[in-house]
Design a protein that fits this description.
Distance between the termini: 40 Å
Helix content: 55-70%
CATH architecture of the largest domain: Orthogonal Bundle
Low-confidence stretches: none
Strand content: under 5%
Largest sheet: none
CATH superfamily of the largest domain: Tetracycline Repressor, domain 2
CATH class of the largest domain: Mainly Alpha
CATH topology of the largest domain: Tetracycline Repressor, domain 2
Number of domains: 2
Mean pLDDT: 92
Structural class: mainly alpha
Number of helices: 11
Shape: elongated
Radius of gyration: 18 Å
């Protein structure tokens, strides 16, 4: 279903494709599309079944010795669209669609921000704390908003680096 949706979106534009057309292209029923993607057609492109939370955990928990959690998160974001420049063509096409479609951009931001509690808990773990406090929840939200904000700058990689430099100054040791 996701592949059919992507091809239709790329061919005709996201706003010009209906869920019924996606279902027909995928040779399935509309109810089946909504059963697998209850969040709607945005989820056909951006549903990751926990991939975002897993990537945050991998970045924080799998960071090299001596590397801060914020350095690891910066490196993780820098290796992803829209910051990385060496992405596979299929992934790049999907990200170009997302970045060029306001509804998909907004949905992508919402699913990242939904990881706030998970990232706050990971930051607490990295700081050796039993649980996240308000400061770590704020930091988590800032971190998760950073890619969206930096990606709209003339030099996204530089903006991402500057944002993380500021975050490190505000939360030294993380």
């Amino acid at each position: 279903m996701s592949d059919a949706a992507l091809e239709l979106f790329l061919e005709r534009g996201y706003d010009k494709v209906t869920v019924a057309e996606i279902a027909a292209a995928a040779d399935t029923a509309v109810t089946t599309v909504f059963a697998h993607f209850p969040a709607g057609k945005e989820a056909l492109i951006l549903d990751d079944s926990g991939e975002r939370e897993a990537s945050l955990a991998a970045a924080v928990r799998g960071r090299p010795a001596g590397s801060s959690a914020l350095d690891a998160l910066h490196a993780s974001f820098a290796a992803r669209a829209p910051f990385a420049t060496n992405l596979p063509e299929e992934y790049q096409r999907r990200m170009d669609l997302v970045m060029g479609t306001p509804a998909l951009c907004a949905y992508a931001r919402r699913v990242w921000v939904a990881c706030t509690d998970t990232l706050a808990a990971l930051l607490a773990e990295a700081a050796g704390r039993a649980e996240a406090d308000d400061s770590l929840r704020v930091l988590a939200r800032y971190v998760l908003e950073t890619p969206d904000l930096a990606s709209s700058c003339p030099d996204p990689q530089a903006a991402l680096a500057a944002a993380f430099a500021h975050l490190k100054r505000g939360w030294p040791g993380l």
